[in-house]
Structures are given as C-alpha cells and as structure tokens.
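Narrative of activities, Objective 1.

The group set out to show that a structural description can be obtained from nothing but a protein's sequence at a throughput compatible with the screening campaign. Below is one input-output pair from the validation batch, recorded exactly as produced.
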Amino acid sequence: MIRMRHNDETPNEVNDINVTPFIDVVLVLLIIFMVAAPLSTVNIPVNLPGSTEKTTPSPTNPVFLTLKTDQTLSIGENKINKDQLAAALDTATKGNKNEAIFLRADKKVDYESLISVMDQLRSAGYLKVALVNLAKEGATP
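Output recorded for this entry:
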C-alpha cells in the first residue's frame, strides 16, 4: 500500500458572504436620498384648493368652535368672548383635554386670526384640533 500526501493541493472552502455588492447598493441609495431630501422641503407659494377626498367620520358629540368674519367665536350655537374660550371649552368637553376640537372658520377670516384662535386652544391645553372644510364636487363619499 502506497500513501501519498498532498496537503497543499486540497481545496479550501470559503464560507464568508461577499458584502461588496450590498455596500455598493447602500451607498447608491444613500446618495439618492441625500440629493432628493432637500427637494422635498422647498417652500413654494400656492393657493390651496378645497378637499375632494372622502370625509372622515366625526365623533358622536363633536365640539365645534366657529370663527366668523367679524372675529366672534361660537361653541356650538353659543357665542362666547375670546377671553372666555378656555372656560367654555372646559365646560363643553367636560374637562377632557384629549377631545378633538373641530375648528370652523369662514373663508374670509384672515390667517392671523385663525392662528390666534389656534394659539388660544393650545394655551388652554387642547392640542387636538381638526380644521373643518366643505367637500367640493367630485368628493368620494
């Protein structure tokens, strides 16, 4: 019986995963996101249209806060003064600060007045504010 030793001729298996293609793909995606991210934050002045999307269901007893063109406020059908807003909301929501307030404003109300009312809501502790609009033609039910 003859034995031959050929230690340096035995093939070695490589069990490592080649991650080079993976790194290439990740770097290309990183470059794409770095280029595309500033494009999504461009401020362009536009006239915002009304909503044609389907309306979301409202709660059973929503609290509607209405701002009219003469800057008067109403909760439901009751007129209130601006300085009584927090107390009137506490009464209407029974003190529940997590309840959504549905803010309706006439389209002729200036933006500054609307933001002022929203600031009052925030300072009163009501952070869930929904802006109400009318559905335009073509809205899906």
